[in-house]
Structure formats: C-alpha cells, structure tokens
Amino acid sequence: MRWLLPFMHLLLLFFQLPTCKSSSISHLFDSWCKEYGKTYASEQEKQQRFKVFEQNYEYVTLHNARPNSSYTLSLNAFADLTNHEFKAKYLGLSLSASNLAIRLNSEQVGIEGPDLVKESDLPSSVDWRKQGAVTEVKDQGSCGACWSFSTTGAVEGINKIVTGSLISLSEQELIDCDKSYNDGCGGGLMDYAYQFIIKNKGIDTEKDYPYQGREGTCKKEKLKKHVVTIDSYADITAKNEKKLQQAVATQPVSVGICGSEKSFQLYSGGIFTGPCSASLDHAVLIVGYDSKDGQDYWIIKNSWGRYWGMDGYMHMQRNTGNGEGLCGINLLASYPIKTSPNPPPSPPPGPVRCNLFTYCSSGETCCCTRDIFGICLKWKCCGAESAVCCQDRRSCCPHDYPVCDTKRNMCLKWIGNSTVAQPLAQERISASQVAEAFL
Predict the structure, then answer these.
(1) Which of 86, 158, 242, 349 could connect to 81 by a Cys-Cys bridge, CB 3.0–4.6 Å?
(2) What are the phi and psi torsion angles at 255 (to 5°)?
(3) In the chain, what are the domain boundaries?
(4) 429-430 and 410-412 as β-strands: parallel, antiparallel, unpaired?
C-alpha cells in the first residue's frame, strides 16, 4: 500500500491549492487595505469587497500574463469595486444625444481658435508638463465632476502659456455655481463650463474655493474673484485627429472618452490600446503626445489621484486608423482661448459683511448658526482662512481640510483615490478646536 502514499499526498495538495491561493489573496487584500486606507462598516461588507478584489486579482493576473500587451494592470485604489460600481461613481461626462449628433457629424466645421501650430510645423513630441503648464494631479473622489477638472486643467494650461503664471483653479466653484446646463457631481460638459467662466468674467483659485468632493451651495462672494479669465473657446471638428494634434501642440486640450472599461479602471502603465468603445462617459485632459517603439500615444492627465495609472497619467494609443480614435478621443475635443491679461489683483479685503449688523474680520468666514425659513438670525465668524462652515452650525474647517466630520470631531481632506475622505494622523485637526475661532 506504500505506493498509494505519494498519490494520496498529491491528491491532498490538489484539494489544498484553492485554500492556499485564497489565503494568499486574503493576505494581499489586507495589505492592500492598509496601503489605501480602506475600512469597512462590517465584516460582511469586508467579505463582499474581498470577493470583488479576488475577481479583479484574477482579471489583472490574466491580462498581465499576455505576452504582447503594451500596457499593464494593477490592483489600484479601485480594486475592491465591480466595474458597474466604478462606472456609477467615478465618471461624469454628460452629453445630450442632440449635441453628440452634431459633434459626430464629420462634415461639421469646427470653431477653430487662433494661431494653432501648423501641420507642417508639428513637433514629433509635446509634453506641457515640462513647460510648467500643468498643475498637480487632482482627485475628484466619488463626485462625478470629471468635466470640471478637465475644464480647469485646460484653463490652467492656457493661462500659464499666456501669462507665465501657473495657478490651480477651483473645480468646486464650477460644481456649486455652474447650474445653467451642468449638474455638479451628476455630470457636465466642458463647453458649458467655458461659457460659465466667460459669462462670470473669470474663475477663482483652488486655494480660495477648495474642492470638497460633493456639491455645495454656491458661494456668491467667490464669484466676484476673477483671478483667471478666458476670452472664448474652440471645438475641434470631430474625427479630425490631425487638427487635435495641432491643438495639443498649442496648449492642453479637454477631451471626452470612454473611461468605463474594466481595463481602464485598473490601468497602471504602458500604452493603453483598449479595447474600449466610443461611448463617451468621462472627461480628461490631453497634455501632450509622443511615440515609443513605433507606437504613437497621447499623454492623458486624469482626475483620479496619483494612485491610478502612472502617477495619475495614462499613455493612450493615437493614430489608430479609426476616425473616432481610441475610446472616442477624437470626438469631443475643445480648448479655451485666452488673449487678454487677467484683471489686476484685488485690493486687500476689508471686513466681511454677514448682514446689515454683523461683520467678520478680513479673511474670516461668516457662518450662520441659526436660521428660519432660509433667513439667518444669528451669525458667527470662523477665523480659519477661507473656512468651510459645517452643517452642525457649531464648527468650521480650514480650506485645506474642508471636509467636516462632526461625528468624529475632525476636519478631513481627500488623499489618494479613496472613496471617502481620510484623516492624516500627524496633521489631524479637531473641528471643536477650529470652532474656538468663532467670535
């Protein structure tokens, strides 16, 4: 019977393999949770997320084992989300059927801006990051406001090119205040955002009107801060990739793409070649183009934080031979036009007026602590610079930690690609301590 022992041993190992594999992935999941600061409300939810993580692990492993793929995938910050959940949370391009039909008409003549680089003068590669015309990668969180990040990125770029100054601009102002056609975290379109900036005669800075990862009430006093202006904007004719290249050689360009594919969700590096459809659902910024090993690509700046892709960027295949472009990138391109200087800096602000009888000192924020039927009966002042008033009406948070967590008595900010704001332990700020600034 000794001859049966090796066979039985192999049989036992065979049945143990799934358990060993599952255990290995479980350890990987625990490490992943620590890396990305993921916590779950219950053990049941954690197990559900683990199952999704395990499925994404299989998907990533199979893709990366392909010998001829030009790009890689990874278990990034979205690895505990199904593709359906991911699409519901992290996109946000909103385009009506009528507008799309017009833009997809290949006979349409685009509204071209002045002084595009001529086709005969196109450089072999462009990277506006090297010219200092691109701000740091930002993170939209689970607010579907990609359109606002694409818009500010394009305006930041042309402002640097024209004035020499790189200023990070406020997506939150667009989310809160641009309501004629756009819908905040519910989606929007870059053309409408350009129209808003033009009509408003400018846009405020990120520092003065910070991002909160959710919709809020429009701060009308901030609308008067016209730090950066644009004169008009241009739409590039759909399916004209050469014209798109000319525009990108001139300045960063906003584009719509299909960003909902699972391979896009888990992308980590290399030249992305799809497959993906041309159903536009996400907005990004093209900041350049180049070629590698005979393969041409666009340099894409995304708004999902530095924990996605190559520190927040993607190389996407161009010159595919398809007029729509990979992921529809040639279908909805536009850019702002700026020829005029920005208005001079505003004089030092005086006291902030809350109502006829209440004032706060310069730089402070008026917070309503008691109202009735929308009319504030009692005001207090938050001394933190460009502060955010919390919903508990007793606390406020500074602009760089703008998310109020009154249950845990903290002010938070977004880090990485986390679906919720995370506190930084070494920089944790107490909402109750900030509230002491009330006068």
Answers:
(1) 86
(2) -140, 155
(3) 87-337, 352-435
(4) antiparallel
